[in-house]
Amino acid sequence: MNLAHIQAFCTVAQVKSISEAARILHISQSSLSYQIQLLENNLDAELLTRTNKGVELTEVGEIVYEYGQTLLKLVENMKRDIESWKSGHEHLIVGASSSIGSYALPCTIYTFKEKYPGANIRLLVANREETIQRLLERSIDLGLIEGPVEVPGLVTRGVAEDELLLIVNPSWQGPDTVTLKELRTLPLIIREEGSGTRQTIARALQEQGLSLKDLNVVLELNSNDAIKSAVAAGHGVSLLSRLTVKAELGSGTLKALKVEGISFRTTFNIVYHRGKPMNNLQKRFCRFILSNPKAFC
């Protein structure tokens, strides 16, 4: 299978136009159409259907596009690692879920670079599922996320313990402790599908024989800061990592309540490929986080 044919097909799939894809790839339309035809012959399947508006992916085309994107990213990342090896300049790309990447890792990386001033580290923040996907695509070298990971080929090691707190507007007039039954009636603002915070809530509820459908979810947001602003404005309550609300609890702009009958504890884990060799920088960073209790700040 020719990698250039896959790249050509993925470009067409992205722009949904043979002529536009040909312009992007700097080749003729006939040459591009021929490459797509060769790929279809190789796979013995039709990948595109022509319409008045351009082209659409067939069901097989959707499958090929998904795998093709992953394959192209793997090749790109392989070339990056080879160039890094040739230059002798080690680098580290760390991916992290929102709670960890926005509130803990900047301090960690700063402390690490004080010890190793020449370290070349890049941090990419996304939600939990996106971070795992980037790790599988090898777009990042290490991941830091909440909760367990059961993906073949990935290794997880616990870094720190955390818990979700029920946060409310500081003008809250109710008791400082609520029951699980009472929690189910409160207007809850939660993170989006794929986030580690949401997974922690779902896992805790499952242990009680419940699900997210049993909660009074009024709003879903993909940002911890947006959720904190909504709660502070009195639009609802939320369950967020202690790490993300430490400053607000200290300043009094948010208040935390206890929830009886359920535990929202979780573990922050470092995740990496089982079979991928680490360079010296990557090894040092792993040791720094795993062996130094104060490193993960």
From TrEMBL:
Record protein name field: Transcriptional regulator, LysR family
Keywords linked to the UniProt accession: DNA-binding, Transcription, Transcription regulation
Domain HTH lysR-type: residue ranges: 1-58
One Pfam entry name: LysR_substrate
InterPro entries xrefs: LysR_HTH_N, LysR_subst-bd, WH-like_DNA-bd_sf, WH_DNA-bd_sf
The organism's place on the tree of life at top rank: Bacteria
The family this protein is said to belong to: Belongs to the LysR transcriptional regulatory family.
Molecular function terms from GO: DNA-binding transcription factor activity; transcription cis-regulatory region binding
Organism: Thermanaeromonas toyohensis ToBE
Segments crossing the lipid bilayer: none
Keyword Membrane: no
